[in-house]
Amino acid sequence: MRTRGLAFLAGIVLLPGPALGTKVFLNASDQSSNSVDCGGVESTYAADNAQRAQARLEAVGFDVQYSQDFANSPSIANNWGADAFLSVHSNAGGGHGTETLYKTAAGQALALPINDALVASLTFPDRGLKYRTDLHMLNATDMPAALTEVLFHDCMTNHSTPLGTMSESCFLTEPDGRAIIGEALAQGFCTYFTVSCSVVQQDAGVVQQDSGVVQQDSGVVQQDSGVIHQDGAPIQQDAGGGQTDGGGIVPDGGGIVRDGGGLVRDGGGIGGDDAALGPGGYSLGASCGCAAGSPAGPGAVLLLAVLLGLVRRRLRYGNPGRVPMPSRDGTRRAKPVGFPRD
Fold this sequence. Notes:
The chain is of the alpha/beta class. It has two domains: about 15-195, Aminopeptidase (3-Layer(aba) Sandwich); about 245-340, no CATH class. It is about 50% helix and about 15% strand. It contains nine helices and ten strands. It has a six-stranded mixed beta sheet, sandwiched between helices. Strands 7-8 form a two-stranded antiparallel sheet. A hairpin with a 2-residue loop joins strand 7 and strand 8 (about 165). The longest helix is centred in the C-terminal third of the chain and has 68 residues, at about 200-265. It is elongated and about 140 Å long.
């Protein structure tokens, strides 16, 4: 288990990923007055595109902040110490395709992989990079910054798209279309920071870790099995106690047998076959009307004890009767006597 854990940690270390603390700031257009021809407004779809990119980047280890605040997003990003800034929009004015805007050389270096990833994924015409000095998002930020126009939301001309033949406007309104846009934005950042956007290796590491947990669960089952064996042991001991108790009964029966044996030896009035119980408390045999070798029940043992006691008394004291006893006046008269006490 420890070996697998170390292998899993090694996989994390070796996995290409963003440097610890890499910060990306995403801003979305707040232009709710810009209508999209296939329905909705620019700000709604820009927010969804940016948030999809945020989730994707966070999944591979980036630290991401998102805001739709037009006035304050640059200062928020500056105060946070963002390493890169991107504002997400859609275009209008009768054009067609994708373009990305920048102001500085550092901004251009960011704009290029973002634009390339969008063009490769959406397959719309590449309008390229455009230098601009009149945009608040590019003028007020301290880090590399770009503003991308992912497509023209007022273009109703049908094109071949990853979702089939449709216009750019309708592509934007499709959730699957925005999923493609969000993924492309994330891929652009991964290219810019020269890291992998793949999470397959990380998922595999998690699976190995889950497998280790299953092995631990298996160990618990084995321990439970041990408890069952222990529970079984007291049962065996209880059974042994029962045997001991049974053994106690046997010697008592043996005592009765020995007394019976004494009667036989003293008087010999009871036949040898009837003299004793067999081993383990068996019956007297033919003279008591029982099958030889059959176990004697508790009632039979008690009856036998009473009868043997009576026989013993009779043999010891003879037939009780009237014995002449002297009277007060000196004459002898008969007086009944009973059995003397033992």
